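name: query_chain
kind: protein
chains: 1
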Amino acid sequence: MSETTDFHTSAAPADVVRRQYLASAHRDLEALRATLADDVEWTEMAGFPLAGTYRTPDGVTSAVMEQLGKDWDDWIAHDDTYVVDGENVVVLARYTATNKSTSKDINVRVAHHFVVRGGRIVRFEQFVDTAKVRDAMTA
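structure:
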């Protein structure tokens, strides 16, 4: 692979994951879906309001990203530290948002584990302090 590889087309696992975060932050669901494999398995942690495993790019964006937009203002996953081991990418990040019902803010640390194959995310697993998210949703 050339050192001049274009970030926007790179199949390197960290680049694919970074494009997913950028697409999410810009609410560009088409670009986000482009980072996901057709058979993606996307797991939101037990206890999280959207807990469960979702499949297909459309399934992930409709069940997760679109739902977050209904309940939260300015939901952003701020990625800051990447640990890459082959196809595994672990990202330490932070969620920030304001709950639309309660007007309470969250600012909570998270860890995300991605598996990237063939330039697409095939698996995602979220780790987050779900109590802090639920507290922000409770009046």
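note: The beta strands are 36-44, 52-55, 72-85, 88-99, 105-117, 120-128.
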